[in-house]
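RECORD CONTENTS
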Amino acid sequence: MLSHLYRSTIVVKTISGVDFYNKPTISSTANVTCYIKEGIKVVKNKEGKEVVSSARIHTDVAIDDNSLIVLNGQDREILFVATLRDLQGNIDHYETYI
């Protein structure tokens, strides 16, 4: 577990759909404690395309990849969510790339 490193809090906005202007409709928000590691990395997104991630967020809770993350006052789209397991196969933590 990496929870001893969690010193940041992000806001996760759950998207329920889009409005008339094709803007996301937010159904709920939640504060999530996390560890943020900023840095450029190429990852594959939900569609399997290679995209550039600017940060990796470690959490103990799964974040739906159809959500927005507020980081430094900006809404950021989630590119990919990875589930990391320990040697026994138990879920250790989640990595969310934005």
Summary: Strands lie at 8-18, 24-44, 50-59, 67-71, 74-77, 80-85, 91-97. The domain at 3-97 is CATH 2.40.10 (Thrombin, subunit H). The chain has a mean pLDDT of 92.
